[in-house]
Amino acid sequence: MAKIKLTKNELKKQKDSLKMYQRYLPTLMLKKQQLQGEIRITELRIKELRTEKDHLDESFKSWVGVFGEKGFFTPKILKIIQIRTAVGNIAGVSIPLFKGAEFETALYDLSRTPLWLDIAVEKMKQVILLDLEAQIVEEQRKRLDHELRVTTQRVNLFEKVKIPETRGNIKKIQVYLGDQQTSAVVRGKIAKSGLEKAAK
User: CA-CA to 124 of 20 to 30 Å: which in 11, 16, 28, 87?
Assistant: First the structure.
């Protein structure tokens, strides 16, 4: 703890600091609650995306055999051209928002490929979109988690360190200044008494 000056100016400075801490603490606590709520929302969204992907994976089980047909379905048939994102803001935290993706499907001869290929390509797009959105939402959660840690540290600093420390400093200065004032009054009375005796 830094040594404080036991003066009226320091007392005013400490009182101003206390007011500032007390004014900002509720804002920080509100931000902390908002971040906690947003983190819960992202966790729910991640869970929803996983559930959707599990359902798609389950429906793919019946398709696994056809993917083995020679030459029809290759990794080159579907390519991601662009992932569209935007920037959002939650409680002062800049977060990425998923806006979709653009795909390029390789040209294939409709007369020489099975009918299921079109459906398989669409299903693959759905799976990829779910994976991409889950990655973006995971990044949102990471950023919100980081900001929550920082905000919690600030709340604890104000609540458990700065406010009690400043109150203690104010009390210490007030006691010292009160003692100095009492001492001055006593000295004044002694001096007055001495002058009165000398005048007699």
Answer: 87
